[in-house]
Structures are given as C-alpha cells and as structure tokens.
Design brief:
Helix content is 40%, strand content 22%.
Length: 290
C-alpha cells in the first residue's frame, strides 16, 4: 500500500525527473528499514523529528543527491539502496543536526500515516522547486556578471607606452618611474602593476601617484589628481590599482610617478621591483566599479 502511495505522489507532481527517481529510492529505503521495525502507533515517540524539520531535511536530501546524480555518467552513477544511500545522506544529517537513527525513526513513523505523508511530500516538492528556481536565478546572475566583466575587458585598451618592468637599484633606473602619456579623451583610466618594495628602500610615504594634466599657461599646468595608492615596505609583492574618470575634454595627458616618495632629495638607494605595468583606457566608465 505504501509503495503505490509514493509512486502516485511522484506521478502527480511537477518536479524534475531526477527527483522522482530519488523519491522512489527513498521509499524503497523505508521498506528496507521498516522490515525489522514494529508498526508505530499513537503520537510521535521520542526521537521523531517534528514535521518542519523533517520537511527541511528531505528537501536538502533530494536537492544535494540530485546535484550528485547530475554530475555522474549513467555508467558511474548507481546507488546501493541498503548501504550507499543512507551513508551519502550523512553530510546532510550533520548540517541539520540530525542522527541517522532519528532520520530512520521519523521516516518510518510518517510513512505509516498515508494522508500525512502525502501532505509532507507535497511540501517537500514545493520547497524543492523553489530551491531549484532560486539556484537557477543565481546561476543566471553569475553568468550575466561574468559576461559583463568580459565585455569591460574587451573594451579596455592598454595605452602604457614605456617599459612594463623595472628593477631598483639598477643601471638604467632613476629614483622613481615618471611618465607622461597622451590622453584618449573622456573615459576611465586604470593603472595596474605588481610592486614589491623592500625594507631597505629609502622612501618616506612611498606611493603611486597619477593625475590628469594639460598646459593652462601656469607654471605647473592644470592638474586633477587620482587617489594615490600607498605602498608598504615589507618585501611582499602586491597588485596595485589606481583609477580615475576623465570628464574634462581639455586634458591632454595622464601623468604620474610610480614609487613616488616624500623625501626625493635624500641620498640612498631604492629597493623595488615593479612589473606588468598597464594603463587601461575605457570609453564608457562604470562609476560603481571605481
């Protein structure tokens, strides 16, 4: 009688086929477990889960086993109902704070009340469908975000026009890396580099400084500063990112100093490695990404 009940539930539901298979598997498990158990009578005894906890547990059992079965080939996926299935549920039991014995006892108890069991499994199927829809929506959002990230990367152009790698001290290096690069017009400009600064470096307040510039007839010209990036003298390599959005069409150049410092007149050596320098330009900046 119980077997026909559960198969009837699976035929009448709208859940996915993989979960229909799991539902019948679970009921075969009931038969195996209950084969040596007495018929439960009266109210739930000690160790039987309440209905809400039992439904939540069954939802996760079907959901995670469905994910597992979807990743297997037909040749590799099989369940030994008496052994593998219950063992596979162990991680879900731990998540819900339930023992294997509590699960078995609850499963047997509720299965002997057909009308109540049907109501429980209707709830399981409804919650399971909601969980699947939420997972599908989240996956779609991640795909859209990934697509947007790739689009931004494609639209960005590297306009860095000098050496990408510098070593301090070295025969061809000065106290810092100064640059002046023609601007491409309004848009987003992003400087990136990997920088390692040694403890022996003489710099005070070491940093990466950038600014938009044009000649306005004054001594130093027009200057619109980016937010500087402070460097640590600890010998660790860090990814440095400095970004700014240009809206002033009069600006002609992006200028800056890598390994800028507050004591340029002090004697001593710089001890640094700067690699993979890039200056990326994008015509359509996204203010939320700054």
């Amino acid at each position: 009688m119980k077997y026909s009940l559960v198969c009837g539930l699976t035929r009448s539901s709208n859940s996915r086929p993989v979960f229909l298979f799991l539902l019948c598997n679970l009921f075969i498990l009931i038969l195996l477990i209950s084969g040596c158990s007495s018929h439960p009578k009266g109210p739930p005894s000690r160790g039987v889960m309440d209905q809400n906890r039992f439904v939540d547990l069954l939802v996760d059992i079907h959901y995670y086993e469905g994910i597992y079965s979807a990743t297997q080939t037909p040749e590799s996926y099989h369940l030994d109902i008496e052994h593998d299935t219950v063992d596979y549920y162990q991680g879900v039991f731990e998540k819900h704070g339930v023992t294997r014995e509590e699960f078995q006892k609850s499963l047997i108890y509720y299965s002997y009340n057909p009308s109540q069991f049907e109501r429980l499994y209707n709830r399981v199927i409804d919650d399971l469908n909601k969980k699947i829809i939420e997972a599908d929506i989240k996956e779609l959002e991640l795909q859209e975000q990934s697509s947007a990230d790739q689009t931004v990367a494609v639209e960005s152009e590297n306009i860095w026009n000098t050496s990408e790698n510098w070593f301090f001290p070295g025969p061809d290096t000065n106290r810092m890396i100064s640059f002046k690069i023609p601007a491409r017009g309004p848009g987003k400009y992003t400087f990136t580099a990997d920088i390692q600064l040694d403890r022996r470096d003489i710099a005070e307040d070491p940093r990466v400084s950038l600014w938009f510039w044009y000649d306005d007839g004054t001594e130093h010209g027009y200057r619109e500063n980016f937010t500087p990036f402070s460097l640590n003298k600890d010998g660790r390599t860090r990814k440095v990112t400095v970004a700014g959005v240009l809206t002033n069409p009069d600006v002609t150049h992006v200028k800056g100093r890598v390994l800028d410092l507050s004591n340029p007149d002090d004697t001593g050596d710089r001890h640094a490695i700067v690699s993979d320098i890039r200056l990326l330009f994008s015509e359509e900046p996204d203010p939320e990404r700054l």
